[in-house]
Amino acid sequence: FINNDFKIYPNPAIMYLNVLSDNQPVDSIKVFNLLGEQMISENTNDQLSVGHLSKGVYILEITSESKKHYKKFIKE
User: Which end of the chain has fewer surrounding CB within 10 Å, N or C?
Assistant: First the structure.
């Protein structure tokens, strides 16, 4: 389920992925590959380093106020 409360940019990303929320605090961010393997887990609220990831498509799981939101992004 894709939620529009969060914006991510740039997409595709090369070194960093920025997470922008209209009004919700970000508790944690996790990145999963398409096999469901967790690649990154951070307690951050705005910028995520993705430079070490291989090129491909990833799923971003944003936890905010005990709810999970999902976004797809491409790593160049």
Answer: N
